Request: fold
Amino acid sequence: MIRIFRHIACEGPGFLAEVLEQKQLDFEIIAVDEGQKVPHSLTGVTGLVFLGGPMSANDSEAWIQDELSLIAQAHTVDIPMLGFCLGSQLICKALGGEVFRGEAGQEIGWHAVDRVEGSAAQYWLGDKDQPVDLFHWHGETFDLPANASLILSSQAYPHQAYVIGKTLALQCHIEVSADMVKAWAGLYTDDLAQGGQWNQTADKICENLDNRISALRAFARPLLEKWLQGVNQGSH
Reply:
């Protein structure tokens, strides 16, 4: 069973949930935003997913400390983990890396991401070599934990996605649906108001959205399926 940690209602599993349902894989959502406690037991858990949220991995809330401990525990027993945005930062911090505010300012909207050549990128991304516009919404970034391999990079933030064994962590959001993008553009107006070189307007974010989401899913599906291969290799 795959356990998914949600940190705010508007940032759910999105396309990932669709893929899991299509493959008839069991998953449960731990709604931290509704006060659900972080389970410490990993019995029966085949994979862990950590979603996004406006908070920082450096915040002191008890649930953040609980998730950091869980990530470290899961890593020692080789349970595959998947992180989006805040999730990727939590994984980084739990595995010894640092999370900090980025010098480029906020990276929000659709921005091109390039693969970082190497054996890890070849394994996870196959022959995809063209830049692809992925969805971003963050102001913090991270260095790489020990033994991590970088596979994706953007002009504003070089560290966009890294892998450690069967764990995949993405600063960008490959899980979003069109409805999620529209909701964020309406909810996170304070972020948009800050402006900046890499901060798009709500209109720009929602422009040509169906085609952008279609391209995003074409990129995301094989990457998520590659992660699921690791999940399916064993149970704990």
